Model the fold of this input.
Amino acid sequence: MADGNTVGGVQITSFANWDNLEKEFVRDGVERVGFRGEDTLLVMNWLQPGMEPGPHSHPFEQIAVIVSGTVRFHVGDETYDATPGSMIRIPPDVEHWGEVIGDEPAMNLDVFNPIREDYKHLVEHQAKDFGEG
Done:
């Protein structure tokens, strides 16, 4: 990651390319990386066809954006076939999961605000940008 710009000794810019960050293995067919701002967390997920779905819920609002591939999202009682450019708002505490449709891997960008403490390990590469570590 390149160093950002500074104003009065305070860093104001971060830069990274998700293809160059070390991916976290979540489970077979699922890997992810993270990038953050002051209060917002982005998580890029690489999803492989045949991955085991992982139904879950959490107390965070989530916005999912499909970057490539097709993902069938289950959100509560609703189901959406999401293609590149699709955006889905997932309310807090609603069970949800995705499954890849077809033979093409999918890339799913999740947006969380505020930053999830349980995902902060994904953005350790930015610790110095925020005066941490």
About this structure: The chain has a mean pLDDT of 91. The chain has no helices and eleven strands.
